[in-house]
Amino acid sequence: MNKMLVKHIKKNDTIFIGMLFALLFAFMLTAFLGLYLARSSSLVLYKLILNIIVLAAILGSIYVFFNAMIVIQLLKGKKVSMLLRKSLQFSLGFLYPNTISLSRLFGLDKNKIRAVFSKLNNQLILSSQIQVKAEEILVLLPHCLQKSSCPHKITCNIHNCKRCGLCDIDKLISIRDRYNVKVVVVTGGTLARKIIKDIQPKAIIAVACERDLSSGILEVKHIPVIGILNERPEGPCVNTKVDVKKIEETIEYFIGKEE
Fold first, then answer.
1. Which residues pair with residue 225 across a beta bridge?
2. Among 42, 205, 213, 236, which residue has the fewest nearby CB atoms (within 10 Å)?
3. What is the pTM of this model?
4. What 3-state class would DSSP assign to 223?
């Protein structure tokens, strides 16, 4: 991994952490404002409502701060206990949409938040020591990996690929044959959900852009999902690529062959 990429990843991490602390500040501001209004009011019911809001805001502040500390430890590459990992895994469903809303408010690139969310999810899954059989792994691929000029439709049926080698599908079929995993090309979230329901895998490796990965990870419950960002040398949704080695390494992790 080159130095420029490392710097880019660290910058995204900082933005994500910044959004968490902005969320923390919002809760604290709500608590102070509610406390001020409660003290200046003489209406009992109004004060009661404000005190409830203050309490909720204080608890929210503690909740966000606690999880922000876990996020910082993970992004620094430090080990955290299983209990803390489970806590963050549960909390990301709340933290992620709020950080996305704040990034929109501050005019920041939402994809940077999405990328860090996927990265955190991957770290949580990879630190859980999950092992499954190769045939229980589903590799979900976006149709944009296929060469746009290719006349052979491989959506839902990757066997239609003629293996010309002009796109990464050929390499991914080789990985499927080597490990006996299930590999399916999908056109979007609706088809992906159907495939998951039909196959019922015990682990998923999903390749997609930041938006599709983050939404897919949030939607899929009770199945570990490792998200791998696609590469877009020609722009989004056309002739994209993927780091095939990452997919192979993730398969080896799931089946317990990782060095």
1. 204
2. 42
3. 0.86
4. coil
